[in-house]
Amino acid sequence: MSSQQVTIRLDTALVGQLDKIAQANKITRTDVIEELLMHQLEHQDEELASTFLLPRVEQVLIGLFDKHLWSLRTLLIQATVESTVASRLGLLKFAADNGYTKDQLSELRNQTYRLSVNRVKKKGVTEEEMIDAE
């Protein structure tokens, strides 16, 4: 197999690390560099997408999310308001059907809220994230 000379400028600290590896393994700096390159290039076909394409895909997705999620903002607000109204109407209907007082209804609502918060926390949402959502 023929070889070609390749020249590259490296940071002094990186050269020092290469020399340490070479000394520890009793081989030359060139051998260390060749070994590292061979190891990295063995799976290059599999990793090519993650190495070069993923940053581009990430930028495209960020742009799309910024554009489209912002347009969903109004819909999300409307859905939140409507679900809040529906839940309050449901509570009032429940109170009327079961003879609950205003205080009993408030306690029922508070219990339901605490239960919901506990369920959300179990899914990994932090207290700060819930406050931001209010």
Question: Your description of this structure?
Answer:
With 134 residues, the protein is mainly α. The chain starts with 11 loop residues before the first helix and ends with a helix. Helix 1 crosses helix 2 (29-42). The chain contains five helices and no strands.
Gap between N and C termini: 67 Å
* Main beta-sheet strand count, sense and barrel state: none
Number of strands: 0
Shape: elongated
- Strand residues, percent: under 5%
Which range best describes the helical content: under 10%, 10-25%, 25-40%, 40-55%, 55-70% or over 70%? over 70%
Which regions contain 5 or more consecutive residues with pLDDT less than 50? none
Helix/strand order, N-terminal first = HHHHH
Give me the Rg, rounded.
30 Å
SSE class: mainly alpha
Mean pLDDT: 81
Per DSSP, the total helix count is 5
List keywords for this structure.
mainly alpha; 83% helix; 134 residues; 5 helices; elongated
Summarize the structure in short.
The protein is mainly α and 134 residues long.
Layout of helices and strands:
Elements: H1 12-25, H2 29-42, H3 44-98, H4 102-122, H5 127-133
